[in-house]
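Pipeline run #58 for the internal structure catalog. This entry was flagged by the ingest filter as a single-chain record with no existing model, so it goes straight to prediction. Upstream metadata was stripped on purpose; only the residue string is passed forward. Reviewer on rotation: M.T. Logging verbosity set to normal.
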Amino acid sequence: LDQAYLVGKYIGAGHRPPKLDTLGAPWWNRAKAAAQRAVADYAARLLKIHAERVTFPGHAFGPDGQWQEEFEKAFLYTETPDQAKAIRETKHDMEQPRPMDRLICGDAGFGKTEVAIRAVFKCVMDGRQAAVLAPTTVLAQQHFETLSERYADYPVRVGLLSRFNSPRQSRDTLEGLRAGVIDVAVGTHRLLSSDVQFKNLGLVVIDEEQRFGVVQKEKFKERFRCVDLITLSATPIPRTLYLALAGARDMSAIETPPPNRRPVETIVATYDERLIRSAIQRELARGGQVFFLHNRVSTIETMAAKLRALVPHARLVVGHGQMHADDLEEVMTTFVNGEADVLLATTIIESGLDIPNANTIIIDRADRFGLSELYQLRGRVGRYKHQAYAYLLIPRHAGLLSDARKRIAAMKQYSSLGAGFKIAMRDLEIRGAGNLLGPEQSGHITAVGFELYCNLLQQSVAALKGEKVKPRVEVAVRLDFLVVGGEEDVMRDASSANPAPHTARLGSESVQDTDHATLPHRYITEPRQRIEIYRKLALARDRAELAALQKEVRDRFGPVPPPAELLFLLGDLKLLAAERGITSLEVEEDKLKLKRRGDFIQVGGKFPRLTKKTPEAKLKEIRRLLAVM
């Protein structure tokens, strides 16, 4: 258990399983050393890019004024703790004299947009313009309406650039941006066109960052190098996660769900018209609305006819990206206003739509969607206090591809609130890290795995930044009077009020269950949580970290029982030994044998002898002996 930190899940960059090494063979160490060298080069490049951005002169926004405070107090809901923290961090970054680059990561409906709305307001109050980029015209339209409504009581003018605009509206918006008359521009990638000129741009918000392509992202970097940047995403792409992880960009994670929010119940089923009819009827019976996703424009009208026959009393509207802008806007407005019961649409509904009354989504041919897409689509429902349902329909008798089966299974597995990060990691595992960091890096990810690669990258960045990186504590411990961990029944008995007279074997010695240093089963019943604590304990690099972990365990699970106290005492002993350069600590028949760099340490030509009787007293006695060395 004291080596639990060495075990990690392997996620590679290719589809082939890794070659297994013989235990003790040199290949693993060679692969790790090669990855460390490559990581150091890559970390240096990352920091160079980051340093260039940091050294460019940015605009330091002033502190919040009276209007900012009034505007934020008018928010109808109470901010969640994570949301409030993200707002504070974003505003703090804006007030610094360097360009901000912050990723706001949170599930659909967890309040990412509110962070951006307040940042945009702060920007405008300081006399600067802001731009909000969205991947679809539907989402851009919704952002335009939301911002116009929120800023209605203030002298903030919002403009829209998308295909919903008439040519004259577009011309007026472009002229307004050039003249500085329009404060906030909302639009799709149209905002990146060369004819879009800002008078005094101060902030750019990119919503649903994972929906923009590489070419567009390169344009972002080119055009907005000296401008504060906020990126919003529920399932960030691996490269974005990497940059945040490596410290080359800042990140705020919003993981606290809004009050009364329930997880969406996910049902995986074969296509069945009876199931479709009952799902729609149940939602309509409680006064709700339904999304039906059919991602084929050529057959969408055929599907509309089927649905009208199945549920004749339901008011159904159809929306897709090939419709005329005015017609599509009318369809969406009809549904948002509650004048239609069922919206049959393509993936244009994937990003950002916030319709609290829609609490059922039915996805036809769910096997054809990527994991991130399915997660985003499911996020369209469950944005209010009612129980929401997502039906993933797959073809009957169809042999699904291995990856499709994994995606569907992952959606079923990760149905809890705030599962966006897990989905992003599972997506990476299914698809592979690919060309994530260029071809020269993906090979090293294959060799050592994604998790270890991340750790190596973090260490390299910290070293290049000049941060003091404490080495991992490596002290071999063998005590004949104490068993670390133990069998499940020992764990159960150790924490009970009247422990059974059970013994566990260690070599040829019989040890009472009260002599176990362990996290008892009844104290922490969930195996995953016990393993997590064991890993944190093994990874503790100093006594302050250990004390913080002990406090966390006490807060989460209650008063620490004696076996767990012994475990923390043993952890403290190892850290103290490591501080004194001890590499091996052994007690045999009350003789304390210590090694430093392979040599035994003796006191007066002999090994110190322990005089105490109980395991706790012996551990404290060893600690006293080490303290005076």
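catalog note: The first strand starts at residue 101 and ends at 106.
catalog note: Residues 428-440, 487-513 have pLDDT under 50 and may be disordered.
status: ready for reviewer M.T.
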